[in-house]
Design brief:
The protein is an alpha+beta fold. The protein folds into two domains: about 10-115, no CATH class; about 120-185, SH3 type barrels (Roll), CATH 2.30.30. The chain has four helices and eight strands, in the order βααββααβββββ. The chain has helices at about 15-40, 45-80, 115-120, 120-135, and strands at about 10, 100, 105, 140-145, 155-160, 165-170, 175-180, 180-185. The strands form two sheets. The chain has a five-stranded antiparallel sheet. Strands 1-3-2 form a three-stranded mixed sheet. A hairpin with a 3-residue loop joins strand 2 (about 100) and strand 3 (about 105). Helix 1 packs antiparallel against helix 2.
Length: about 190
């Protein structure tokens, strides 16, 4: 962004949700009211009951939607305040401070939720699972599929550590893979 340009206005998640709700529920209700008025049917009891039921449904939906947005914003704020996990083999990605939503602008609460924030025991479970799967393959040639990598890493599994696996490629060069990034381990063919 050019420093000379003013920064776009930011909205809270609740305010952005209220705008979306207004466009999705209240605007069609107003159009229905205008149509009934224009047709002269607004004075009929059947149209009034239908309009009242529709308004009641919109108000109940607004209450539920507002509560859901408040809880979601609270969860996002709480996840942003959690202490950073101890540094591992790879540094954590820098958090994104703001999220741009087309048509609404910038949302402040949106930050990427790290998997370790959501489930504290996830890394321990992954470690136990991948260690158990890699144990019989130590010293053998393996193929390790890594998240967000186009090709699997192929090499000799030389060591299983607390943080991940250590592979040796064909030239004897060491390659480390953390348990969080592994998606599959199998004996190479």
């Amino acid at each position: 962004m050019d420093p000379a340009q003013p920064k776009p206005r930011t909205y809270t998640l609740q305010r952005a949700g209220a705008i979306v709700f207004a466009l999705a529920a209240i605007l069609p209700l107003l159009l229905l009211s205008y149509t009934l008025y224009d047709l002269g049917a607004l004075g009929k009891p059947q149209a009034q009951v239908g309009l009242a039921l529709a308004l009641g449904g919109v108000l109940i939906g607004a209450y539920i939607f507002w509560g859901m947005m408040a809880r979601m914003a609270e969860i996002l704020r709480a996840s942003a305040k959690l202490p950073e996990p101890s540094p591992g083999p790879e540094p954590p990605a820098p958090p994104q401070a703001e999220f741009d939503l087309p048509g609404l602008g910038t949302i402040r609460e949106a930050e990427p939720i790290r998997e370790s924030d959501m489930l504290p025991g996830t890394i321990d479970q992954l470690r136990a699972m991948w260690q158990a799967e890699a144990e019989p393959l130590v010293g053998r040639r393996v193929s390790v599929s890594v998240r967000n990598a186009p090709e699997p890493l192929v090499g000799t599994l030389s060591q299983i550590t607390g943080d991940g696996l250590l592979l040796l490629d064909d030239e004897g060069k060491k390659m480390g893979v953390s348990y969080r990034r592994i998606s599959a381990i199998e004996a190479a063919r």
